[in-house]
Model the fold of this input.
Amino acid sequence: MGRYTIRRILQMIPLMVGISLIIFLIIQAAPGGPEQMMLQSGLTIDPSVIEAYRHRLGVDQPIYIQYFKWISAFITGDLGISYTSTRPVLTMIMERLPATLELMSVSFVLAALIAIPMGIYSALRQYSFFDMVATTSSFLGIAMPVFWFGLILQLVFSVKLGWLPVSGTITVGNTSFGDHILHLILPSVVLSLHYIAGWSRYMRSSMLGVIGSDYIRTARSKGLRENIVVFRHAVKNALIPVVTIMALNLAALFSGAVITETIFAWPGIGRLFIQAMYARDYPVLMGILMMGSLMVVVFNLLADLVYGWLDPRISYK
Amino acid sequence: MTVTNILGEDDALEKSKVVNQRTIIWENFRRHKVAVIASVLFVIMALACFAAPLIAPYEFDAINLKAIRQPPSAGNWMGTDDLGRDLLTRILYGGRISIMIGILSALVGTSLGALIGALAGFYGGRLDNLLMRFTDIAYSIPTLPLLIVLSSFSNSAVPVMVLIIGFLSWMPTARVVRGSVLSAKEKEYVEAARMIGAPDRVIIWQHILPNIAGPIIVGATLGVGNAIIIESSLSFLGLGVQPPTPTWGNMLMDSQATMASKPWLTIFPGLAILLIVLAVNFIGDGLHDALDPTLRRR
Done:
């Protein structure tokens, strides 16, 4: 297990190199660069000024030198300077990180708390009314465009009913914790919807597979109470593949956060990303893409390790 | 054993000859009632959209400044927008682009995934390693942010959107196809094909792929729904197909600012997306059950 972990961590290095190359090349292919921003400002700028600016940013050097400079700086935590705010990209990301992490973790927990019991109950009462409703809602949830769901919730709960705030993290002048929780409800419901739908399906089918197996019949025939059979014997094993999927999806939550934060004006990384995209602030875009990819790679590793740890039948050789 | 029994078995044999693969799949699909309803819904919606010039009540860009921002009424079933354009008409025309992008992107993504997966699984070794590590890399970059960056660079024409979405959605297919090819290439029928001297190309495309078509078709179906949602999300952010060409996504682009006073402009295009994706996903579910031989009840 220990050697396997080390090997997997070492495998992350070439993977991250490949990812960084692709991100770098894509951003290089972008039309216009920082000087384009200056020219767009409508001022007549002396070409020598532009040249000096390009030189200062290092964009006048050959592409592979730019890559090596960028990637070696990245390793040391230097993600470059934003074109628009002229502040370090890492600082900007770190400022926004807590809001995104808060939204992501609340949505993750919310999704798990709803999806897992829903899946278990659906499996125990297969083809019952509850199961049918749950299955239909899951299909609805999976087919739902996240941004539209957000808009409809805003329309119903904020505009029409006035129960919840439309967007932001706090009401100006109100610093109470309760007010912040009210702001958190809609974004986290929106972000968790896909995962509630997806995980409850996984939990249901995983549970159905376990319930039909021999050791559950054995447990029942031993005369164990149904509660113990279900929770101690069945759920524990049925959770294994689901937990792996949940860990893998943690990374996908990040993609969802981009849209959710935009709709609800949530001051996280996702919104920073969209702002940087409109402003063609390439260092910020690259920094966020790299951080996002790193997150995916780390969560994939965690998912693999958790799987091996939960399921003793898996051996790492 | 009695004579009738033998006759009965003969009869069954006779019948089983008539039943071919396609009939079995169709029979299985037909049992999935929801999938059948979804197929009918999908066909109706798609036909209505593609026949938009024939059946739409108005021209898609017909501006009527006397009737701007009208709520749904007998004359405009879904109301009108800021320029007095009929919303139902625009949803029909928009559906053509959205559905087309969905289908074409899924085709691009699935073909690319099938090609990469088949090559990796069939040839194995270094090529497999190279292609699969590339798949890992493509899998690890968060898709939506990457899509956002790529479409912000492009002019967002329909073919460009199809290529961008297609090129970022091939990875699941590649992995599934690789796995299926790996197990299929050890089967006797591949050995037999090899023995009569069939070239690799023929073995892959004519012998292996038809046998692993099930998961590919299901994946492609779900890919259609996925691509429609991606296109609409990008359009919502102002990065998809640009107005005046309507798509379900770009009709929602400015709706956040105006939804309090004109909720119909937000509700109807979104409902269209939800319905079509729901239909496509149910069809995929039905195909999954019908094409999976282990689930066959026959």
